[in-house]
Amino acid sequence: MADVLSLLSAIGGVGGLATIISVTFWLGKKFAQIDERFKLMNERFKSIDERFKSIDEKFETLERRITRRIERLANAFVNYQEFFVEFLTHEGVIKRESRELLIGEVRRIIRLSITNPLTKEEWKKIKEYIEKSEKDTITLEEAEDFRRLARKVALEHGEQPEAWKLHIYATITLALTRKKYYAEKES
Fold it and tell me: Model's pTM, two decimal places?
């Protein structure tokens, strides 16, 4: 330290040394103030981060609620459609021939099999059930399974009109098969 002081005094004398010390002291205070401001800014950012986390959590909760409501609405619509189509079929408003109008549309649904969570075996069953329904050889158990699979397709691909047409077709098939089954049982 003595060497530094002697060097500084040789360069600028005592006045220069006092100036350097005072500038150094002043800079130290400024750096302390700057450091304090950075600490305050960090605290503010932590507060802002907490607010964003809270907002994110609220959005996630809202999104989950909306998703659950949409799923419930889709299930309600599927159940409504099933009842209504079965009722109309039972009452004779929808006849066996009406089902034929849907078969072309139903066959188009198979193209969704590429991007679907249904297994290949389930799609194969759907194809078999369509063929059996056209020949009127589908059993009651198969018709029930057909509608279960069609419901799965409708819920997964509700944005595709063909998915709903498959569901209607399967529901008509089940209703007609039930009607036939009960008629045979009574005779």
Answer: 0.56
